[in-house]
Each structure stands twice: as structure tokens, then as C-alpha cells.
Specification:
This protein has about 110 residues and is mainly alpha-helical. Helices cover about 50% and strands about 5% of the residues. It is built from 4 helices and 3 strands.
Length: about 110
Amino acid sequence: MHGTPPRDGHPGGVPVPIGPWTDPDAAFFTVGQAGDLLGVPAATLRRFDAAGAVSPERSAGGQRRYSSRQLGHARRLVDLVAEGLSLQAATRIAALEDEVAELRGRLGESEA
């Protein structure tokens, strides 16, 4: 049984991720699902898309599809806008925070 998870998929009580949702860039959440997960109306996400703040992929039928990574980014924007920032300012701050995190990661790698 070595290497085979128990039938409940939880070896040692830890869930085994299976499926496309394990890839943070797999875009499969609809705009309605994304809005529900973020607690915002779908119109908010459509506004973010129109402004270029979050760019979801499109299905063959042209419907927006969001990945987990995009939902995390959208969550940060929602939080910043709720703090009183404009969407443009929130987008810039989120981009700068991402850049700082990337640079810190590179610095940590070079120091190791």
C-alpha cells in the first residue's frame, strides 16, 4: 500500500489535492462563482476586467474564467478598494507588492 493514498484520499489526515484546482493558474471559476467566493457582485469583477485590473481567460463561448491566482489578486484589489483607494491606485499598489515579493524571493535565493 506504500505510495497509494487511503480510499478516503487523506493519508495521515491530510487531503490529497486532485484535479485542475491544484493548479493556481487553471481558470475554471465563472464570474458568478468568483463573485460568490469573493463576496462581491459579478459586476465588480466585470468592472475590474474592463479596467484591466484582472484579466480572466475566456471560454470558447467567450465567458470569463478565473483561476485561483486571479481570485487572490482580485481579493487584494477588493480589500484595497474597500479601504478607500481607487481601483487604479489599488491595482498599482498590488503590482508593487508583487514586485517586492518577487525581489525578496530572488534576494533570498542569492543569499542561500
